[in-house]
């Protein structure tokens, strides 16, 4: 039956909604809370009554009653990175559609900041956490979060030694296509520039000290170079710049000063790609006439340059939405088996790749 309302001068209560809808308070609570057995017609009447009365549920009281905060914690490495901006937007949109709010902590790739940020979120009693981890080996804080009963999903960066849900992109797929394209265009001196720690490859564990996304790209590069005729290119074409501003520029300048400079450069992500392109410009070189270029993240500005930049497209937004889906499944069923979802990447060749220039 239609619901008629009267003007309330004070805040409406659940009892007011139930009275206006002509049902019990318990039924109104189930209808508004989305749980229990309530017919669609009754649910509609309750929603109409709540809207007409301007009813706002007492979130604090509900949280005390259910033991939930309707909040999800997110720990990301660098919010200024367009990739993480996309994934975080996907997380936020998907969480909001399910009635959750999101708290985001930015770590700047610092393990210490990650540990402190995670502790902050857990102290806020979030219902679950999403983490783009800074390390694949220093994971005790993540293990402890799980032992405390907090649902955890890893975003973008897998950790093979941690038993939890994970949502990542197939970074090897897109990188493999990128290097194959450069080789098919005739390039043999192909440089790879990454934001990973410059000391990583000198350590006994090598690539295992680098995030999985970065390590996958480096491993794919090394495999591709081994397919070239003759001796694999010198190690000096593989450069790890680190996360310090200006480091990628300096690394690129060093590469371009080599007696046999690279004829193509692949930058691991769109953030360091900007510095690489600046260094190419300042060296008086033109893309692709003098040097070809590609990067590991596809971003809107890649189409705004002349020529447009060849790039590996990652499903950043979908990574975010699928991460929330997996986290909510874990919250609903803590005992279910762990899942690892891998989404495909795709290389887009554009005008930044040409043939190698004539030998100097």
TrEMBL record:
Sorted UniProt keywords: DNA-binding, Repressor, Transcription, Transcription regulation
Entry keyword annotation includes Glycosyltransferase: no
Location of the HTH lacI-type domain: 12-66
UniProt keyword annotation of Nucleus present: no
UniProt-listed SMART domains: HTH_LACI
GO molecular function annotations of the record: DNA-binding transcription factor activity; transcription cis-regulatory region binding
PANTHER family recorded: HTH-TYPE TRANSCRIPTIONAL REPRESSOR PURR-RELATED, LACI-RELATED TRANSCRIPTIONAL REPRESSOR
Protein name: Transcriptional regulator, LacI family
Organism: Nakamurella panacisegetis
């Amino acid at each position: 039956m239609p619901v008629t309302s009267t003007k309330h001068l004070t805040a409406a209560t659940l009892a007011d909604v139930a009275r206006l809808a002509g049902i019990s308070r318990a039924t109104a609570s189930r209808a508004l809370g989305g749980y229990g057995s309530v017919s669609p017609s009754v649910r509609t009447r309750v929603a109409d009554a709540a809207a007409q009365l301007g009813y706002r549920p007492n979130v604090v009281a509900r949280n005390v009653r259910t033991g939930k905060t309707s909040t999800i914690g997110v720990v990301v490495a660098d919010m200024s990175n367009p990739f993480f901006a996309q994934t975080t937007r996907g997380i936020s949109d998907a969480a909001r559609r399910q009635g959750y709010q999101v708290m985001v902590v930015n770590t700047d790739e610092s393990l210490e900041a990650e540990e402190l940020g995670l502790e902050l979120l857990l102290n806020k009693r979030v219902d679950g956490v999403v983490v783009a981890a800074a390390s694949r080996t220093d994971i005790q804080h993540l293990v402890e979060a799980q032992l405390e009963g907090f649902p955890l999903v890893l975003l973008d960066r897998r950790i093979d030694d941690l038993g939890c849900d994970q949502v990542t992109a197939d970074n090897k797929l897109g990188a493999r296509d990128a290097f194959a394209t450069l080789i098919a265009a005739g390039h043999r001196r192909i440089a790879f520039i990454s934001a990973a720690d410059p000391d990583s490859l000198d350590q006994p564990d090598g690539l295992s000290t680098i995030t999985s996304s970065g390590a996958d790209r480096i491993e794919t590069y090394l495999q591709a170079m081994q397919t070239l005729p003759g001796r694999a290119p010198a190690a000096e074409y593989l450069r790890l710049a680190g996360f310090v501003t200006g480091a990628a520029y300096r690394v690129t300048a060093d590469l371009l000063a080599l007696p046999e400079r690279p004829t193509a450069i692949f930058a691991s992500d769109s953030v360091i790609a900007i510095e690489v392109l600046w260094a190419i410009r300042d060296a008086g070189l033109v893309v692709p006439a003098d040097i070809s270029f590609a990067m590991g993240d596809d971003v809107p500005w890649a189409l705004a340059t002349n020529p447009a930049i060849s790039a590996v497209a990652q499903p950043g937004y979908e990574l975010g939405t699928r991460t929330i889906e997996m986290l909510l499944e874990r919250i609903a069923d803590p005992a279910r088996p762990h899942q690892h979802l891998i989404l495909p990447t795709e290389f887009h060749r554009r005008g930044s790749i040409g043939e190698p220039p004539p030998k100097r």
